[in-house]
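Chapter summary example: a protein plus zinc ion.
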Amino acid sequence: MTGPAKTPEGLDVQRYRLRLEEMKDQLEADLGAYRRDEAEQDGGPDEPGPGQRWEHSGLGDHLADDATELFEREKNAALEQTLQDHLRLVKHALSRLEAGTYGACEQCGRPIGAERLDAIPETTLCLEHKAEAERGGTAPGRVATTNAWRAET
Ligand SMILES: [Zn+2]
């Protein structure tokens, strides 16, 4: 640690707050629409019933319609997960705004940079540490276990 992370001076925090609030509203609306869609499609409880299998094994034995439905469900679940992850990031960034640490990298405390924040207001890591987090997994703040994953570039 190089000292407590603090919002860099001169950063237009209010502008990012507005953008983050907007993103949060949009994501929550999208997630809400998703759940409505799913309920309409199924017309019933969302959970697979007892004895039903959603595993990949034996997929070839299923009717094509089943496979397509399974694929759609998995795709929707993945998309919903993406929305939820994004919403979590946006909320996290907002909480850092409240704490007065917005705009400083969570890993090294250095300013993330207005240019980068303009592009991705929800980011809480500088470029360097974002790349590291992505190599090591999806969770921000998680330490990369290896750098050998991709040697080129
Ligand atoms: Zn950093």
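Key point: The chain has one domain: 1-41+62-153.
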